[in-house]
């Protein structure tokens, strides 16, 4: 029997209309580094998104599923692009402004971007790559910056002013001829940040964005409402800022956008002044902020909850924020999962001590992300919190393929997608009988020592629990006797000194004795990827080239 229910497509167009009318008074605040931030209501931002869609179609001739890229910080204009481009049926392609220029060129050409909307402050980055982007016909510039940089670079490209384009259009939602969209069609695309190889494009559908936003809005996940102000540090060029801009437009949660002011000091200032109730960022940002407020105290007490994910959150970091009255929610996800995969919401009725072992896991799976663990031989493993295997997931906001370079073409690499339709995450871990995931490593980072596996993440977490250690990354290096052994690369806190024997002693008792590294290097900072994760490829290369001052004991 067919149901008797209406079949209304789940689209970003609905999210736009809903947010700008039902939550008209909610606000996007963009930090400017000046006395006053820019404040814009959802009604205004929504109206400007309508204007942007009209200008892209009417003035620039964007049609069908053409790609409109953004090279922007987190700000109100970027949110407008997030809404306008998918709603008009085109594909929003967020360009990662921290990618090396060869990779930026690679992804823009691979996606065949036709338009790039760019923040003026990023023109020095765009100008040198623009001559290498043959498909780009239009550049739209928003905000202050030196336009003359484009004069030479953009001989074949038309340059437009964002505000001028908008000014010529009506902000009335009904004045634009919105296409009837199939909810399964592409809405936005994002390339993986290439921690483990060439960037690969994931194309999110209207349906996946809609369902992911609803999940993000449950109390088990971000749980934001109109009463919240969320500080969106996680970049909009990194997996849709974890879905926050679309999710907030659904429920009217207010956004605080840091624009280019991502250093610990301005972040601490904006938290103290604007008093966000929630924030989302990768662990390295939280480490930096903690060091900042330890040196120059600021009031972070407004932030009842913060979401940390993107790489493993060291328990010591969670404890430090607990002491500041800030509760950390640990999440796991990846570009291919839109990205929210798990979130930590301990079971009901537990004391804080009983909650702790749950809080330090990667979290619990929502109904839309079904997990299984595959052993080395492909056998499906039990959820006993002991059997470690590769995590595989499936669900309505999980990728089933990568973008193959032109519309309709897809890549389904066997090492990423199983024959029976599951995404192979490349993450290794265990699942408890009640469904909590603990990741021990990335498959590519796990240390294979004499037939046993050592978790680099466990060693890192243990080391980062030492009071003198700011950051620690552990990688596998070749070893004649054991095949591979761990190398610990450590950054000490300012003004602190500690010897390797003491660090070894500290680890003994926290991890198995045979897992304790014998190779150590002190460095000024751990190399990071474009989205702030430890870049283990670089550390392995530095070791192989003899660039690290390694002590063996
Ligand atoms: P890239 O793979 O290029 O780094 P992603 O942002 O998609 O880009 O990264 C996803 C990966 O980040 C996951 O597969 C996992 O290895 C890691 N990750 C994300 N969140 C966590 C977490 N909470 N704990 C451990 N690892 C995490």
Layout of strands and helices, then pairs:
Layout (H helix, E strand, L loop, with lengths): L11 H11 L4 E4 L7 E4 H17 L8 E5 L4 H12 L3 E4 L6 H11 L1 E7 L3 H7 L8 E5 L6 H5 L4 E4 H6 L18 E6 L9 E5 H11 L12 E4 L6 H4 L1 H8 L2 E4 L6 H11 L3 E4 L1 H13 L9 E4 L6 H9 L3 E7 L6 E4 L8 H8 L3 E2 L5 E5 L14 E6 L7 E2 L6 E2 L11 E9 L4 E7 L4 E3 L2 E3 L1 H8 L5 E11 L3 E10 L7 H8 L11 E4 L13 H9 L5 E3 L1
Parallel strand pairs: 1-11, 3-4, 3-5, 4-8, 5-6, 6-7, 10-11, 10-12, 12-13, 13-14, 26-27
Antiparallel strand pairs: 1-2, 8-9, 14-15, 16-22, 17-18, 18-21, 19-20, 21-22, 23-24, 25-26, 27-28
Helix pairs in contact: 1-2, 1-3, 1-10, 2-3, 8-10, 11-12
The site of adenosine-5'-diphosphate (ADP) has 24 residues, from strand 14, strand 21 and strand 22.
In short:
Among the domains are: 7-205, ANL, N-terminal domain (Rossmann fold), CATH 3.40.50; 446-552, ANL, C-terminal domain (GMP Synthetase, Chain A, domain 3). The protein has 17 helices and 28 strands.
What does the model show?
This protein has 553 residues and is an alpha/beta fold. The relative contact order is 0.09. Strand 3, helix 3 and strand 4 form a beta-alpha-beta unit. It contains 17 helices and 28 strands. The longest helix has 17 residues. The model has no long low-confidence stretch (mean pLDDT 95). It is globular, with a radius of gyration of 23 Å. Among the domains are: 199 residues, ANL, N-terminal domain (Rossmann fold), CATH 3.40.50; 107 residues, GMP Synthetase, Chain A, domain 3 (2-Layer Sandwich), CATH 3.30.300. The strands form six sheets. Strands 2-1-11-10-12-13-14-15 form an eight-stranded mixed β-sheet, sandwiched between helices. Strands 7-6-5-3-4-8-9 form a seven-stranded mixed β-sheet. It has a five-stranded antiparallel β-sheet with strand order 16-22-21-18-17. Helix 1 packs across helix 10 and helix 2 packs across helix 3. The site of adenosine-5'-diphosphate has 24 residues, from strand 14, strand 21 and strand 22.
């Amino acid at each position: 029997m067919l149901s008797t229910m209406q079949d209304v497509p789940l689209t970003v167009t609905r999210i736009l209309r809903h947010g700008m009318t039902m939550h008209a008074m909610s606000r996007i605040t963009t930090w400017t580094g000046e006395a006053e931030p820019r404040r814009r209501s959802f009604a205004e931002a929504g109206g400007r998104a309508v204007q942007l869609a009209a200008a892209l179609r009417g003035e620039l001739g964007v049609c069908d599923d053409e790609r409109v890229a953004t090279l922007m910080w987190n700000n109100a204009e970027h949110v407008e692009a997030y809404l306008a481009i998918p709603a008009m049926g085109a594909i929003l392609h967020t360009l990662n402004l921290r990618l090396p220029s060869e990779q930026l060129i690679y992804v823009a050409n691979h996606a065949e971007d036709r338009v790039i909307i760019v923040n003026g402050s990023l023109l020095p980055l765009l100008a040198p790559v623009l001559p290498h982007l043959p498909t780009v016909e239009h550049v739209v510039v928003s905000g202050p910056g030196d336009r003359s940089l484009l004069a030479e670079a953009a001989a074949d490209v038309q340059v437009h002013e964002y505000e001028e384009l908008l000014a010529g259009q009506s902000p009335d939602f009904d004045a634009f001829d919105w296409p009837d969209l199939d909810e399964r069609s592409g809405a936005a695309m994002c390339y993986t940040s290439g921690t483990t190889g060439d960037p690969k494009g994931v194309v999110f559908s209207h349906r996946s964005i809609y369902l992911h936003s609803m999940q993000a809005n449950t109390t088990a996940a971000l749980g934001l409402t109109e009463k919240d102000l969320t500080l969106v540090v996680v970049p909009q060029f990194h997996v849709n800022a974890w879905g926050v801009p679309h999710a907030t437009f659904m429920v009217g949660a207010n956004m605080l956008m840091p624009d280019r002011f991502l250093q610990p000091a301005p972040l601490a200032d904006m938290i103290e002044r604007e008093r966000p109730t929630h924030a989302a960022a990768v662990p390295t940002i939280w480490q930096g902020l903690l060091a900042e407020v330890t040196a120059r105290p600021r009031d972070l007490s407004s932030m009842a909850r913060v979401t940390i994910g993107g790489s493993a959150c060291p328990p010591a970091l969670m404890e430090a924020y607990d002491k500041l009255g800030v509760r950390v929610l640990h999440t796991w996800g990846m570009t291919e999962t839109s990205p929210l995969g798990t979130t930590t919401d301990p079971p009901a009725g537990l004391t804080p001590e009983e909650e702790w072992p749950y809080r330090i896991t990667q979290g619990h799976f929502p109904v839309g992300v079904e997990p299984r663990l595959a052993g080395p031989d492909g056998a499906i493993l039990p959820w006993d919190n002991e059997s470690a295997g590769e995590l595989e997931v499936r669900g309505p906001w999980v990728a089933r393929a990568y973008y193959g370079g032109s519309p309709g073409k897809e890549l389904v690499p066997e090492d990423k997608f199983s024959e029976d339709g599951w995404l192979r995450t490349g993450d290794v871990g265990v699942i408890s009988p009640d469904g909590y995931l603990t990741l021990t490593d990335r498959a590519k980072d796990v240390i294979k020592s004499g037939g046993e596996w050592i978790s680099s993440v466990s060693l890192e977490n243990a080391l980062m629990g030492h009071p003198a250690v700011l950051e620690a990354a552990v990688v596998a290096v070749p070893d004649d006797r054991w095949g591979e052994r761990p190398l610990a690369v450590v950054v000490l806190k300012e003004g602190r000194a500690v010897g390797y024997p003491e660090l070894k002693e500290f680890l003994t008792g926290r991890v198995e004795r045979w897992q304790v590294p014998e190779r150590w290097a002190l460095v000024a900072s751990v190399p990071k990827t474009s989205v702030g994760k430890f870049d283990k490829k670089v550390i392995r290369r530095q070791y192989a080239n003899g660039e690290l001052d390694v002590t063996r004991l």
